[in-house]
TrEMBL record, chain A:
It is a multi-pass membrane protein. This is ABC transporter permease. The chain crosses the membrane at residues 25-47, 92-116, 137-160, 256-281. PROSITE patterns: ABC_TM1 (PS50928). Residues 88-278 form the ABC transmembrane type-1 domain. Its main location: membrane. Keywords: Cell membrane, Membrane, Transmembrane, Transmembrane helix, Transport. PANTHER family: D,D-DIPEPTIDE TRANSPORT SYSTEM PERMEASE PROTEIN DDPC-RELATED, OLIGOPEPTIDE TRANSPORT SYSTEM PERMEASE PROTEIN APPC. It is found in: Cell membrane. Belongs to the binding-protein-dependent transport system permease family. The lineage of its organism: Bacteria, Bacillati, Actinomycetota, Actinomycetes, Propionibacteriales. It comes from Kribbella karoonensis. InterPro entries: BP-dependent_transpt_permease, MetI-like, MetI-like_sf, OppC_N. Pfam families: BPD_transp_1, OppC_N.
UniProtKB/TrEMBL annotation, chain B:
Its main location: membrane. The keyword Zinc-finger does not apply. This is ABC transporter permease. The chain crosses the membrane at residues 21-43, 112-133, 154-183, 203-225, 261-287, 307-333. It is found in: Cell membrane. Residues 112-326 form the ABC transmembrane type-1 domain. The keyword Transport applies.
From TrEMBL, chain D:
Belongs to the ABC transporter superfamily. Gene3D superfamilies: P-loop containing nucleotide triphosphate hydrolases. It comes from the Bacteria. This is ABC transporter ATP-binding protein. InterPro entries: AAA+_ATPase (IPR003593), ABC_Ni/Peptide_Import (IPR050388), ABC_transporter-like_ATP-bd (IPR003439), ABC_transporter-like_CS (IPR017871), Oligopep_ABC_C (IPR013563), P-loop_NTPase (IPR027417).
UniProtKB/TrEMBL annotation, chain E:
InterPro entries: AAA+_ATPase, ABC_transp_ATP-bind, ABC_transporter-like_ATP-bd, ABC_transporter-like_CS, Oligopep_ABC_C, P-loop_NTPase. The keyword Transport applies. PROSITE patterns: ABC_TRANSPORTER_1, ABC_TRANSPORTER_2. This is ABC transporter ATP-binding protein. Belongs to the ABC transporter superfamily. Residues 2-244 form the ABC transporter domain. It comes from the Bacteria. GO terms for molecular function: ATP binding. The keyword Nucleotide-binding applies. It comes from Kribbella karoonensis.
Length: 294, 340, 573, 313, 315
């Protein structure tokens, strides 16, 4: 029977993929994303952190793109291309981990707030709402400034300030799911809190969660770059710190457009890829949107 | 039924709004209280000795440092400092800036105007443009207008504010190639700002780029939100009814779809104000706009303990207040919840 | 000058004014502006940088060096009131008696016993002799205006025009935006040649460069190398590159102690050994640092903490003492001292207890320091020393490297005034933190009897040449003992528009500084190109163009949309 | 007055096509009430929406819809807008959704008057009051919002709205579904009374044959996008599907149905996967072999016509 | 089997008023008996059904199963729910769209830790008329027709081998042609397994189709109950009369005016009097507006709560 299950899963995935494939933008986002992630993962096979070492810069300072340095060099003669490549690891790592953190907090609190109707839910909701209205960038800025800007603290700062919208979404979904008659049926069958939360609510919010996490990664990457730009991040090379570098080293006034444009465009491309993917996932996976489209 | 019955039925509704507003206000007060408490402890976590940081490498004797510490009330035990802080905050006294040696409230007061001008203008433009375009896009999803709008907003949404600001500065203030740098490089007005209308123009000219930056990023969100909100309405039966009545397509959209779609957006519009404020920090830094964001950023860089605390408090509290207002406004606007 | 043909010069700065009250202000930019508004007792000579008369026409010292008498110049405040010794006495006494007034320049009156005035004669009695008396940084304030202020510590001094005795009067200050100064017609040296000086604040350094290139501003100082480089090739701009006031050095935790000689902090024991410090010194290629980190815009430091700008006081190593980049020698020193390399190539303490693994504390958000760290790491690796970089935000940095001594090696530096006493004092025993771990202001936790006695000697020595000799000995001591290792002296980098500024005199006149210099000379002697008019025409043209473009775009969009609408109306719903 | 000629509606769902209505022809005389029955998904609403070209863009409509001799499907948009509501108006199924939740019902009733320039200002107000009273609601209700009304009241408002422009034809798409028994009776009474008074033609759609039989003169039954039977509301059904549908609603007190619920075996057809031949064949209790191949058209037998081979015999 | 005594359920309503959705109900379902609970929308049918299952706590009164009163501890509730099961109106909604048919039916056995899950599931599906059961195991709800879904829901309930089935509008959302099949299934289960059932409906035809007894509810109270034939062919209570009269076939309609009443404001006296056609026609008695009626006992005999109906001889 398990093989049947497997075939079923495969078919379900096939159907999902068929739906997803129809979103051309989503697919192109996925492709960009896939390329970015794969490149980031295989980077250590080709280069190491050495490319971000100022001493090892081989080119001239702020040299325009050439055969040796296809995307030009930075203020220390390091190849912008290689730094972008290596820096993608930090940017993506921060994006993913911050989104993961925010998703975990958001999911747990969101489900709890939706599931427990009494004061537990009310208190969680209050706290969520409170966090929700905190201007998140400003709060992240303060947190990063206070905790010091290591990669871990940046992740925490972003994660801790961005979960409320996830929690809100999950709570709304939880409420929607719990209003469905099958919850009533499950209760009538004798189900408890844990059963309802894990068997019914979680699987039903999971797809949306996936979509919203994808969007969350996008905004985490942007936030990281903003924090880096505002100088609270003492990070290893990331796209944000590269932009900060280009700013500090006067790339703009020196006409080193490659140094400003490339990291920025990378951010835009990857963030957009995540966004497109997330939106496509949302339309494919969100039953409400799906029926609208039908 | 007679009209007395109607009054009977409406009385509790009005009562309901008041009660709702009161509940919301209570909630907001609670939130503000939480912010105040959280702020205090958050800033006590700051590494380093604020007084030493203040000295900024200038040489100070231990006596001087003690003096300074006493002046800032940092020599007292934490609970006492806490009580003092609460009392002070409740008296709307945000303390004295370490760096500027002036009451934080004064410093904020001097800069809040320019921030309001910038963010207010940006918000008005972003909201009106975003909502208008979102409504049109959502009305005919898949149309060319929709595709272009969505594409633009997705790109803008993905662009880091500061980067966009820098690019705009480099292109339109510095000038590149054939593009003349017609916009100023800094500030909210010229040093020799003329009086009268010319002065208004001067400020306007200074505002173009920072405003554009803020608008670009924020409006995309409004557009997307409004778009999906309108798409939600398009399938509704009352829209079909309106069309069946013989209304023109535009009228159906304007009179039926948009007013309904606007309701859920109200809350989101306000919710995003926090985002505008966040964006203002970077935009003000890039365009040297003399506002709160810049003050806050400076406070973080110094770091100026009280100033950071005060601006953070103010920003947060104002966002909370705005959100509460939004809730109440929503309540007034939507007849369904109004009398519920 | 006729209205509309005012000669205006605009200076760009990247720091905003913290307070217009000189008793409170601490920022550099504010100090520069005060220099233009208020008179001081003395001013560095524009050629030699030696103290020369400013508000004090002349002065005498008692033989024990404890009583100074200044003769205050017969001049007028900008509001027409006469300047008397009473103004100066009031200023100093205020600072001595009112804690609130100490914020800005408190330490300058620390050594004062009493200050009194008699007509134009000002008498200052000191607690101990002080050779640097003539470099007093306190602006003299008009008593008749300021004595009305109730609480100095809360006074923002935003009253215009200011009453001062310098070449300019502040007439307007917009917070975080600009300060507008007008020529002071009553200035005792005579009215400056331009009518108005604007100090314009940029939060974004890149924008200030753009501003200079565009002509929004006419002069900008304190540039960093890349921005300076980017001015190259602009025919209208003069790149001003001269010796600077600053020395950049490493601070080495050579066994930090408190002022009661108790060890403090967690410095690496190997650094207590002067041979290790010297070896490190040999392992630094200063020229390479200058080229790579400073873009060639600095001078490698073959001396100590006083830069060559101050010719009188600068000391340069020579002969056997002179340390030049030599990794072999560094290795040899360490080998000889018994620090053997382990299997991983890293040396250990002679007793084998610890590896030579040092932390290098730098600030967050400073690419120059990052880069420096990478180079040092590279070279130190060659001599079997591991260096790991530790980035700290500024308050934490100040605490760890100045009070708690939780560091091994840290980046450091100091901008030196014409009188070097302040920087010399940062290496005194007394500057170490107290037993309770407070206060101080040490830059090295240094406490060396030789250095101490030399310091006392130069303090009393009123003869400039003799004093300079003593000071050079102190520098030599620092060089050899190496509690700090000077790396280089960054150049002063500035830029100005020659189509706007006809002439400007640096200080010192020979290869000196403009904005970054001491005293008001550059901005007093400044001359504007005479074809000056208000630049409004240009910017208005831009505005009009912009508005026109906007209108065209809107009209086009509107036309397009209405057409579409009309078209769509009868087509399909 | 209304003639449907081979009306077809096909929804495009990406690559797939959903033939929701497959060639429906019928006529509705002036002043007549016609009931259209059929179970969910049989295409009833699609027919109703096609009459005024209100279908979503994904729908392809074929055939002709003649309203007073004019083909609605080929009309200019301007003309169509003029026809909408003034010649034919619609009462939708879900009254809670057919009204704009944020506008006062008075405004909504007056809206068609203004759009068709029939009345404005005070005149429109007067007309709104009049209409509300006609459907048995107090005039002050004009100032209420939809949510302040009960389901039955909202349905009355929808009816008042439909009457606003005094159309010759009212299409009522399941006007009583989701309403309570008693409220349903109230609304039906109102509809009956109004068409009798105003001589309006009525096309009423429902899945409940008994309700239709009660109000309408003639009944049409749809199955899988086709008309399978049309005839006077009184009398026996000929088509086995119509018969089964009728049997599904037992008469209380009829001993035959006591403790003997009756229904059809099998599932309603999926319009995307219709069997060949007679679409009803898989569920038909009396199917013949030939049903698998012949796609039976309406066969007239007396005053009724049914699409079943058995009818011809 | 299942018996409710003086049951009362309250909800916090608007403006602090409490809505008494169920306001004193005595009802029993005997072994192998099908009882229909009819009444118009909002009269409290669903609330009563939910309360009988222990999904809602009554504010007064009690529920007993086989004579033992219902205990609201988690354990005993769970045990109780093996005996009494629920079938809801909307089969699509009652099935988690992400669970296969197998998962849906196995959910109960899993919660209760029943052994031999697969055969239980197969058996339940077969009994609910989905044969062969294996063919349906891996299907998702959206791949089933409405009738099949409702059968799956019933199978899910049957998997726990309950004694009582509470069905809340079991066919209301099904196509007309399919409802007969489901009702037939309920009858068959009663006959084969001796299952008792409480069927909640507003459809009198349905009651006539399958119920042994009918209870007519109005505003939280049962106003008339008794054998189906008695109640539906010879209604006593004016409300029941009106309900039956608006059925399309009936000759003379009594259309009640006004809206379904509001459980937050229960009228004094007979709760039906504001809409009662007899009172409106002036044939009511003073008692109708002033004297509250007693709660009908849980007997199986025909009984009516009306001041104007002479008490039926209960002997
Ligand atoms: N917008 C649409 N897009 C695609 N298919 C549709 C659309 N609207 C209806 N359909 C399909 O067309 C068929 C007929 O639908 P229609 O709404 O006309 O049925 P109906 O008889 O009114 O049903 P009900 O009784 O449920 O209202 C159904 O199979 C339905 O799924
Ligand atoms: N959870 C709840 N909170 C508050 N009020 C409720 C709740 N559930 C039901 N009610 C109220 O109790 C009354 C009875 O509701 P119930 O759902 O039992 O009626 P019903 O007879 O099942 O109606 P329907 O036929 O419409 O399903 C209604 O007035 C309803 O508004
Ligand atoms: Mg329909
Ligand atoms: Mg119910």
């Amino acid at each position: 029977m398990s093989s049947v299950v497997w075939v079923r899963r495969k078919r379900a995935f096939g159907k999902f993929w068929n739906d997803f494939r129809k979103h051309r933008a989503g697919v192109s986002g996925l492709v960009i994303l896939g390329v970015a992630v794969v490149l980031a993962l295989i980077a250590p096979l080709f280069i190491d952190a050495g490319v971000t070492n100022v001493v090892s810069g081989t080119g001239a300072k702020l040299a325009p793109p050439s055969l040796d340095h296809p995307l030009g060099t930075d203020e220390s003669g390091r190849s912008v291309l290689l730094m972008i490549w290596w820096g993608s690891r930090t940017s993506l790592l921060i994006g993913f981990l911050a989104a993961l953190l925010s998703m975990v907090i958001g999911t747990v609190l969101g489900i709890a707030a939706g599931h427990f109707r009494g004061w537990t839910g009310a208190v969680i909701l209050r706290v969520t709402d409170w966090f929700l209205v905190l201007p998140s960038l400003v709060t992240a800025l303060v947190l990063a400034a206070i905790l010091g800007g290591s990669t871990a603290t940046i992740i925490v700062a972003i994660g801790v300030t961005s979960w409320p919208s996830t929690a809100r979404l999950i709570r709304a979904q939880t409420l929607a799911v719990e209003a469905r008659p099958y919850i009533e049926r499950s209760l009538a069958l004798g189900a408890g809190h844990w059963h309802i939360a894990t068997r019914h609510v979680l699987p039903n919010v999971a797809p949306l969660l996936l979509a919203s996490t994808t969007l969350e990664v996008a905004s985490a990457i942007v936030t990281e770059s903003t924090l880096a730009f505002l100088g609270v991040s003492a990070n290893k090379t990331s796209w944000g710190t590269m932009l900060r570098g280009s700013y500090d080293w006067g790339a703009a006034t020196a006409g080193a457009w490659w140094y400003i444009l490339v990291p920025g465009l990378c951010i835009v491309a990857v963030v957009m890829a995540f966004t497109l993917c997330g939106r496509a996932l949302e339309t494919v996976l969100n039953p409400r949107l799906r029926t609208r489209e039908a | 039924m007679s009209s007395t019955v109607e009054e009977l039925e409406q009385a509790p509704a009005r009562h309901g709004l008041l009660r709702y507003a009161a509940t919301k206000a209570g909630g907001a007060l609670l939130s503000i209280a939480m912010v105040i408490v959280a702020t205090f402890f958050l800033f006590r976590l700051l590494p380093g000795d604020p007084v030493r940081a203040l000295a900024q490498g200038r040489n100070m004797t231990p006596e001087q440092l003690d003096l300074e510490r006493a002046r800032l009330g940092l020599d007292k035990p934490v609970p006492e400092q806490f009580l003092h802080f609460i009392g002070q905050t409740l008296r709307l006294d945000l303390g004295v800036s370490y760096e500027y040696k002036r009451p934080v409230l004064d410093l904020i007061g001097e800069r809040i105007g320019s921030t309001l001008l910038l963010t207010g203008t940006a918000l008005v433009i972003a909201v009106s443009l975003g909502l208008w375009q979102g409504a049109r896009a959502g009305w005919k999803p898949g149309s060319r207008f929709d595709k272009i709008s969505t594409a633009i907003s997705l790109v803008l949404w993905s662009v880091p504010t500061f980067w966009l600001g820098l690019l705009l500065l480099m292109v339109f203030a510095a000038g590149i190639g054939p593009i003349p740098g017609i916009f100023p490089t800094r500030g909210s007005s010229s040093v020799d700002k003329p009086d009268g209308f010319a002065g208004v123009l001067d400020v306007g000219q200074h505002m173009v780029l920072p405003c554009l930056t803020l608008v670009a990023v924020v409006y995309a969100q409004y557009l997307l939100v409004m778009r999906s909100s309108v798409i939600d309405e398009v399938g509704q039966d009352y829209i079909t009814t309106a069309r069946a009545k013989g209304l023109r397509d535009d009228d159906v959209r304007r009179r039926h779809a948009v007013p309904n779609a606007l309701l859920p957006t109200v809350t989101l519009v306000f919710m995003r104000i926090g985002f505008v404020v966040g964006g203002a920090v970077t935009v003000e830094a890039i365009f040297s706009w003399p506002g709160l964001g810049q003050l806050f950023y400076e406070a973080i860089r110094v770091p100026d303990f009280t100033l950071m605390q005060g601006t953070f408090l103010l920003i947060t509290v104002s966002v909370i207040v705005m959100n509460t207002l939004a809730d109440v406004v929503y309540h007034v606007l939507d007849p369904r919840v109004r009398s519920a | 000058a006729e209205p509309g043909h005012k000669k205006v010069i605009k200076i760009g700065v990247t720091q905003s004014v913290d307070s217009m009250n000189p008793f409170l202000a601490v920022r550099l930019v504010t100090g520069s502006i005060q220099r233009l508004i208020y008179g001081f007792l003395t001013v560095p000579d524009s050629k030699t940088l030696q103290p020369s008369p400013d508000l004090a026409e002349s002065w005498t010292t008692s033989p024990d060096g404890l009583t100074w008498t200044f003769k205050i110049r017969q001049a007028k405040w900008s509001d027409g009131q006469p300047i008397t010794a009473d103004d100066a006495a009031w200023t100093f006494n205020k600072m001595m008696t009112d804690d609130g007034a100490k914020t800005g320049n408190g330490p300058a009156v620390e050594n004062f016993r009493s200050v009194s005035a008699n007509g134009q004669e000002l008498t200052i009695k000191l607690k101990t002799p002080q050779a640097s008396m003539l470099d007093n940084p306190v602006p003299i304030m008009p008593k008749h205006v300021w004595e009305k202020v109730k609480d100095i510590s809360k006074y923002d001094a935003e009253v215009y025009p200011t009453v001062g005795s310098g070449p300019y009067v502040a007439v307007e200050h917009k917070k975080d935006q600009f300060v507008r100064l007008e020529a002071n017609p009553a200035y005792w040296r005579g009215r400056p040649k331009i009518d108005e000086l604007q100090v314009i604040f940029y939060d974004n350094p890149a924008a200030s460069i753009v501003g200079l290139k565009k002509g929004d501003i006419d002069l900008i100082g304190r540039l960093n190398p890349p921005d300076f480089e980017s001015l190259k090739g602009d025919d209208n701009i003069v790149q001003w590159n001269t010796q600077g006031r600053r020395a950049a050095y490493l601070q080495i935790n050579h066994g930090a102690t408190t002022s009661d000689n108790k060890p403090i902090g967690d410095g690496h024991p190997a650094l207590k050994d002067p041979r290790v410090r010297t070896a490190l010194h040999y392992a630094i290629d200063k020229q390479k640092l200058v080229d790579e980190v400073q873009g060639g815009l600095a001078k490698p430091a073959d001396g100590s903490i006083i830069p060559p700008l101050y010719k009188d006081f600068f000391w340069e190593a020579s002969g056997a003492e002179k340390v030049t980049f030599d990794l072999a020698k560094a290795n040899k020193i360490l080998d000889d001292a018994g620090y053997k390399r382990g299997p991983d190539g890293v040396r250990t303490m002679p007793d084998g207890s610890r590896k030579l693994q040092f932390r290098f504390s730098i600030h967050t958000d400073t690419p120059i320091e990052d880069k420096l760290a990478e180079y040092l790491t590279g070279w130190f690796k060659e001599i079997g020393v591991t260096l790991t970089t530790k980035r700290l935000d500024s308050s934490k940095f100040t605490e760890e490297t100045g009070t708690t001594a939780l560091f091994d090696i840290a980046i450091s530096g100091w901008s030196v005034n014409p009188d070097p006493e302040e920087v010399l004092a940062t290496h005194l025993c007394s500057r170490r933190p107290t037993a309770t771990g407070e206060g101080g202001g040490t830059e090295s936790f240094y406490c060396d009897p030789t250095y101490e006695s030399l310091y006392l000697q130069q303090q009393k020595e009123l003869d400039r040449t003799k004093r300079a000799d003593v000071i050079k000995k102190m520098e030599e001591r620092l060089y050899v003992d190496a509690p700090v290792i000077a790396l280089y002296y960054p150049n002063d980098l500035e830029g100005y528009r020659k189509d706007r500024i006809a002439s400007i005199t640096p200080i010192p006149e020979d290869k000196g500084l403009l904005y970054g210099g001491s005293g008001y000379w550059p901005f007093y002697t400044l001359e504007a190109v005479s074809t000056d008019t208000k630049t409004d025409g240009g910017s208005n043209a831009g505005l009009i163009a912009g508005i026109a473009a906007g209108v065209v775009v809107l009209a086009a969009a509107g036309f397009f949309l209405t057409r579409r609408r009309r078209g769509a109306a009868d087509e399909r719903e | 007055m209304l003639t449907l000629d081979e009306l077809s509606v096909t929804y495009r769902l990406g690559a797939a096509e959903v033939p929701a209505v497959r060639g429906v022809s019928l006529e509705l005389a002036s002043g007549e009430a016609l009931g259209l029955a059929g179970e969910s998904g049989s295409g009833k609403s699609s027919v109703a929406l096609a009459l005024l070209r209100l279908l979503p863009r994904s729908a392809v409509v074929g055939g002709r819809v003649l309203l007073d001799g004019e083909d609605v499907l080929t009309m200019k948009w301007g003309r169509l807008r003029a026809v909408r509501w003034s010649s034919a108006s619609i009462v939708f199924q879900g009254a809670q959704h057919g009204l704009n939740p944020v506008r006062r019902i008075g405004d909504q009733i007056a809206e068609p008057l203004q759009v068709h320039k029939l009345a404005s200002g005070a005149a429109a107000d007067r007309r709104v009051r009049e209409l509300l009273e006609q459907v048995g609601l107090p005039a002050w209700r004009a100032r209420s919002y939809p949510h302040e009304l009960s389901g039955g009241q909202r349905q009355r408002v929808m009816i008042a709205m439909a009457l606003a422009c005094a159309p010759q034809l009212i299409i009522a798409d399941e006007p009583t579904t989701a309403l309570d028994l008693m409220v349903q009776a109230q609304v039906l009474t109102l509809i009956r009374q109004l068409i009798a008074e105003h001589g309006i033609s009525l096309l009423m759609i429902s899945h409940d044959l008994s309700v239709l039989a009660d109000v309408c003169d003639r009944l049409a039954v749809m199955y899988a996008g086709r008309l399978v039977e049309i005839g006077p509301s009184s009398g026996e059904f000929k088509h086995p599907y119509s018969q089964a549908l009728a049997a599904a609603f037992p008469t209380v007190g009829d001993p035959a149905s006591r403790l003997a619920p009756r229904g059809l075996a099998g599932d309603p057809p999926d319009p995307q996967r219709l069997p060949g031949g007679c679409a009803f064949r898989p569920r038909c209790p009396v199917a013949l072999e030939e049903c698998a191949s012949t796609d039976v058209q309406l066969l007239v037998s007396g005053d009724r016509a049914a699409a079943c081979v058995l009818v011809g015999e | 089997m299942l018996e409710a005594t003086d049951l009362q359920v309250e909800f916090p309503g608007r403006g602090g008023r409490r809505a008494r959705a169920v306001d004193g109900v005595n009802l029993s379902v005997g072994a192998g008996e099908i009882v229909a609970l009819v009444g118009e929308s909002g009269c409290g049918k669903t609330t009563l059904a939910r309360t009988l299952l222990g999904l809602e706590r009554p504010s007064a009164g009690r529920i007993a199963y086989d004579g033992t009163p219902l205990n609201y501890s988690t354990r005993s509730l769970r045990a109780f729910r093996r005996q009494v099961q629920l079938v809801l109106q909307d089969p699509m909604g009652s099935l988690n769209p992400r669970h296969t048919v197998y998962d849906a039916v196995a959910e109960g056995p899993r919660i209760h830790g029943l052994p031999d899950e697969e055969s239980v599931v197969a058996g339940a599906l077969a009994r609910a008329g989905l044969r062969p059961p294996e063919r349906f195991f891996q299907r998702y709800p959206h791949e089933l027709s409405g009738g099949q879904r409702q059968r799956v829901v019933i199978a899910g309930a049957l998997a726990l081998e309950p004694k009582v089935l509470i069905a809340d509008e079991p066919v209301a959302s099904l196509d007309a042609s399919v409802r007969g099949e489901i009702l037939a299934l309920l009858l068959k289960l009663r006959d084969e397994l001796g299952l008792s059932a409480l069927v909640v409906t507003h459809d009198l035809g349905l009651a006539w189709n399958i119920a042994d007894r009918v209870a007519v509810m109005y505003l939280g109270r049962i106003v008339e109950s008794g054998r189906t034939e008695d109640v539906l062919t010879n209604p006593q209570h004016p409300y029941t009369k009106a309900l039956l009269s608006v059925l399309p076939e009936s000759p003379a309609r009594i259309v009640l005016t006004g809206e379904p009443p509001d459980p937050t404001r229960i009228p004094t006296g007979c709760r039906f009097h504001p809409r009662c056609q007899l009172v409106a026609a002036g044939t009511g008695a003073d008692a109708c507006t002033t004297i509250p009626l007693p709660i009908l006992p849980a007997t199986t005999d025909t009984q009516v709560a009306c001041h104007l109906v002479p008490a039926v001889d209960n002997s």
